[in-house]
Design goal:
single chain, 3-stranded antiparallel β-sheet, signal, 10% strand, Transferase(Phosphotransferase), domain 1
Length: 135
């Protein structure tokens, strides 16, 4: 299976994906995040949900990738205390407070990705795509 980074938003090189494909991508990513939070033997907080971390396989079946910032916890410890993690533009507000982080942080990031899927454009202007702040 050949996988590549998604182009959820349109560009001059690639057209915006049609609604059925966008729906399948959104549903697939939502299911993947739900699996990480609810069905894994351990609780996984991804910490970096963004379009660049979604790979498309055959028939636009999405795979969530890049678990470099992820937190793995026991099911009974479904909160995490950590330094800020993620990519600017997709980071949940909880990361700026000294409160424990829950799966809601990933859901917030997915909400921003979903807005991009629906609108077909970025939610923010990224000045230099090569510069990311991973802590």
């Amino acid at each position: 299976m050949e996988e590549e980074t998604t182009e959820i938003v349109g560009s001059k090189k690639k057209p915006i994906l049609d609604w059925n494909i966008r729906y399948r991508i959104a549903l697939g990513v939502a299911r993947a995040i739900a699996y990480l939070h609810e069905e894994c033997l351990e609780w996984v907080l991804h910490c970096d949900i963004k379009p660049e971390n979604m790979l498309l396989g055959d028939e636009f079946c999405p795979k969530v990738s890049d678990f470099g910032l992820a937190k793995l916890k026991k099911k009974e410890d479904m909160m995490s205390v950590s330094r800020m993690r993620g990519t600017p533009g997709y980071i949940a507000p909880e990361w700026t407070r000294p409160d424990p982080i829950t799966s809601k942080a990933d859901v917030y990031s997915f909400r921003l990705v979903l807005l991009e899927i629906v609108s077909g454009s970025r939610n923010f202007v990224q000045l230099d795509p090569k510069v990311e702040s991973h802590q």
